[in-house]
Amino acid sequence: MGQLENKTALITGGASGIGLATARRFVAEGAHVFITGRRQAELDQAAQSLGPNATAVRGDVSDLGDLDRVFDAVRERGRGLDVLFANAGGGAYATLEDLTPEEFDQTFTINVRGTVFTVQKALPLLTEGASVIVTGSTTASKGVPAFGVYAATKAALGSFTRTWAGELSGRGIRVNAIVPGPTDTPGLRGLAAGPEHVAQLLGQMAQGVPLGRVAATDEIASAVLFLASDQSSFVTGSELFADGGEVHV
Ligand code: NAD
User: Fold this and answer.
1) Is the model's pLDDT at 118 over the cut of 90?
2) Is residue 150 among the annotated active site residues?
């Protein structure tokens, strides 16, 4: 028996990076997984690689109409939702001096508003004992130059996690945050000035990590699986740091 046998899960930003690695793990553990993302071609490719126990639904978390469509697709399956991984995120990277109002709004809209309304719209579908996981970031507590607005959105998600854990405890629903350190994903690689600078960027990122390297997406997926499964049945309102010791060592 897999750890998520007969469970239904939804992963936003599930076509790439941490979301896709987690979708792969959830399917291997017996779940049916809905993945969402903004880019249809990327979604189709991801769904194909995941096989028949995955359903791809295009949807931008910053668009409330898209979110309704996504949850309609889950509703149509008629099994409720046992695991919600509200993982989609990204945003602008700029110093205080350079940050524009548009970058500020875009980053808060995707990371905070997008996550809040993903979780809100999932509420009617969540089963008793469901697990909700949001994706934070170690940048929230590290004061990394040029990560100010992104870090602030991830700090906000830590706060929401604690509030929602209390609000939803009466239904037995657990809410936790996974807090990855630097992780080798297309999103992270996209921060490099060009493909020839990727190795240099990953090397720089690894310098701040006591374990001396960035994470592989599978390592983050393992921690998310712990929060999604009954293995963490008494864990709620917590932030699980999968960061190679970046924040605490
Ligand atoms: P990624 O770019 O590889 O994948 C992100 C996925 O989210 C993509 O499929 C993208 O299409 C989707 N997405 C982005 N904006 C969206 C939106 N508005 N609506 C729907 N889907 C959207 O990125 P990743 O590195 O795997 O990041 C996943 C999460 O992990 C993000 O929340 C990110 O902030 C967080 N995170 C990443 C790292 C890291 O080092 N990679 C570290 C800490 C936290």
Assistant:
1) yes
2) yes
Q: Is residue 221 part of a domain?
A: yes
Q: Is residue 35 part of a domain?
A: yes
44-49, long-range: CB within 8 Å, 24+ apart, which pairs? 45/15, 46/14, 46/15, 46/16, 46/20, 47/15, 49/24
Residues in contact with ligand 1 (CB, 6 Å cut-off): 12-13, 15-19, 36-39, 42, 60-62, 87-90, 110, 114, 135, 137, 180, 182-183, 185-188
Task: Give the number of domains in the chain.
Answer: 1
For residue 108, what are the domain limits?
8-180+215-242
Over the stretch 170-200, which tens digit does the pLDDT of each residue have? 999 999 999 999 999 999 999 999 999 999 9
pTM for the full predicted model: 0.98
Tell me the ipTM for this assembly. 0.98
